[in-house]
Amino acid sequence: MKKGVMRPGHIQLRVLDMEEAVAHYRDLLGLIEVDRDDQGRVYLKGWTEVDKFSVVLREADSAGMDFVGYKCVNEGAVEQLRQELIEYGCKVEDIPEGELKGCGRRVRFDSPTGHLFEIFATKEQTGKWEVGNHNPEAWPRNLTGMKATRFDHCLLYGPNIAGTIDLFREVLGFDLAEQVLDGEGTRLAGFLTVSMKAHDVAFIEHPEPGKLHHASFFLETWEDVLRAADLISMTDTSIDIGPTRHGLTHGKTIYFFDPSGNRSEVFAGGDYHYPDHEPVTWDADKLGKAIFYHDRVLNERFLTVLT
């Protein structure tokens, strides 16, 4: 049952050197820098996103993800979900309006996998970058790099993904779109959606809590993914794997790293999901093909490099 969560809203990433990180996310990925705050954080967005920002960079001593937030339909939904999260047993923290520039109050909560999540309903809307929503042109002319359209999802590693998946399904109203099961039927990975997308967040079982595997950004075509691969080589950016296709979700993808070691993905295409769809299931012994459909084997770096 849908509970009022609409979509991913923002992710805050820790980076080791801010200007190097800005060069990655703004100049290479092609996100638009929209603001900075008195904490030194940098705010960015994809050009199709109507809210002011979707990515926040914070300089720190270690890389990784601070939190990811999901936007709700209104403040009433946030308040209802806040109470349900407390009743479910989550530790809840109220973050005041303005702590993130242009964003209303947020409700932050913990999870069995050790990740911090947020829900919110109010954020300044600046519209699609330069084209707006009144007689819009097809795209802005001054985009750079890979021209990423939006922050799409993140893949998170931690223990007890069953607990976090239950939290997202039972309290936040997400659907399980795709999963990986071992021979005993234990879920090793779950891909969850609160929309028609193949996934809005995904989890993989891992002994260390609170780990980020990647933050993912949407491109429009396979040709855009190939162009992204060219830009990765042109800039001598550290690459993980690709361009290739996933078996899971069937998206066309390439993975690479920011200068702090956080993994980025850009992808195009992918499956869709409706609430009446049964989860797509992959067997663990087919995991190589599930992740990298063409190679059908997993590289060690993809499984072990986390922030």
UniProtKB/TrEMBL annotation:
- Organism (species): Marinobacterium lacunae
Q: Which reaction does it catalyse?
A: catechol + O2 = (2Z,4E)-2-hydroxy-6-oxohexa-2,4-dienoate + H(+)
Q: How does it assemble?
A: Homotetramer.
Q: Does the keyword field hold Iron?
A: yes
The residue ranges of the VOC domain are: 7-122, 150-269
Q: Which GO terms describe its molecular function?
A: catechol 2,3-dioxygenase activity; ferrous iron binding
Q: Does the keyword Iron apply?
A: yes
Q: Which family does it belong to?
A: Belongs to the extradiol ring-cleavage dioxygenase family.
Please give the InterPro entries that the UniProt record associates with this protein.
Answer: Catechol_2-3_dOase, Glyas_Bleomycin-R_OHBP_Dase, Glyas_Fos-R_dOase_dom, GlyoxalaseI/FosfomycinResist, VOC_core, Xdiol_ring_cleave_dOase_1/2, XylE-like_N
- EC assignment: 1.13.11.2
- Required co-factor? Fe(2+)
Q: Which UniProt keywords apply?
A: Aromatic hydrocarbons catabolism, Dioxygenase, Iron, Metal-binding, Oxidoreductase, Repeat
Q: What is the official name of this protein in its record?
A: Metapyrocatechase
